[in-house]
Structure prediction request, 393 residues.
Amino acid sequence: MRFHTFLLKYGEIGIKGKNRYLFEDALVRQVRRALKDVDGQFEVYKKQARIYVDCEGDYDYEEAAEHLKRVFGLVGICPVVRLADEGFEKLKEDVVAYMDEMYPDKEITFKVESRRAKKTYPKNSMEISRDLGEAVLEAFPDIRVDVHRPDVTVNIEVRDEIYVYSQIIPGAGGMPVGTNGKAMLLLSGGIDSPVAGYMVSKRGVGIEATYFHAPPYTSERAKQKVLDLAKQVAKYSGPIKLHVVNFTDIQLYIYDRCPHDELTIIMRRYMMRIAEHFAGKDGCLGLITGESIGQVASQTMQSLAATNDVCGFPVYRPLIGFDKQEIVEVAERIGTYETSIQPFEDCCTIFVAKHPVTKPNVDVIRRSEERLSEKIDELVQTAVDTAEIIDIK
Ligand code: ATP
Ligand code: MG
Prediction:
């Protein structure tokens, strides 16, 4: 079947009044972005509280649909066949042909629903539905009508042309990116943080990211893995400005001066401080991490409190109540899992203590950090100044 247009459906909740057109305009922008790299020519526009994508000439249908499925804010994607208005008899033939091609197995129930946007059309919507329904029934003896719970609803929209669609591909849901500000994701090479970024972005939030590595203890390939993860998240969130921070000297200094069972917590506090610095500079409104209560020693309630202690920004932890298996399921669905499980070292695993504290006391941690006072400001400044900025498209 050759589809000429996609009709895009979006949720209506919370988008009344002025917010509505902001929401729609952001959605149009995101749809255009999603289709930018797809083979073909697409015209995206809104009309009568709907968004349409007209596909001109040859295009890759599968790829276009795949890309549209990643646009936050869409709840349904309907591939539409557009027919020239050449009289009702011809329309009947075309709709019968449409049903035949779309549903080779005719043991189904259906109903026809019509909208007449062109008021000069000689039949009203009731008549259109009834007469087309009859034509389909006559053509296929096995097919049945069910107006309450049909397997297939055939939608007919009469405009200058006639739009026919019956398939609704589920959309990604959420809100269009750009309607809810921007936040800074602490992105590691693990399973959790890409999922966390995806989840916050789903609510309409643009993403920047910060990755800490420790060359030569961590490799180029570990960094490449994070770039790959950022690319995958960017398929949903749009472009990501990634800050790659060389954390080696800070880690070595902490290792040198602080109790080893507190290393992870103190490191995490410096990560938060540095990420927050970039966040503030770029107008982000919060930080995002992949933390989940109790997952590891650094994510007990006490550890989270100790990490949070240094943050002035809100820290969004969308996975906080998720079990690992639930996180893995999302990671598989959004296509980050396979990359995340590649076995490259992370800077957190290299300097990790055998028996990290699980119930750190914030005052004790603060006092340990005082041992860093001589050089830490300078090291942080250098880490910030030498961060590599990579624009992930
Ligand atoms: P993940 O699977 O996301 O790596 P994790 O289970 O390994 O998480 P931790 O290592 O304790 O958990 O990290 C908790 C969170 O801290 C991560 O989800 C991430 O947001 C942030 N984080 C950890 N290491 C790094 C890093 N090297 N660079 C940037 N952020 C990091
Ligand atoms: Mg990790």
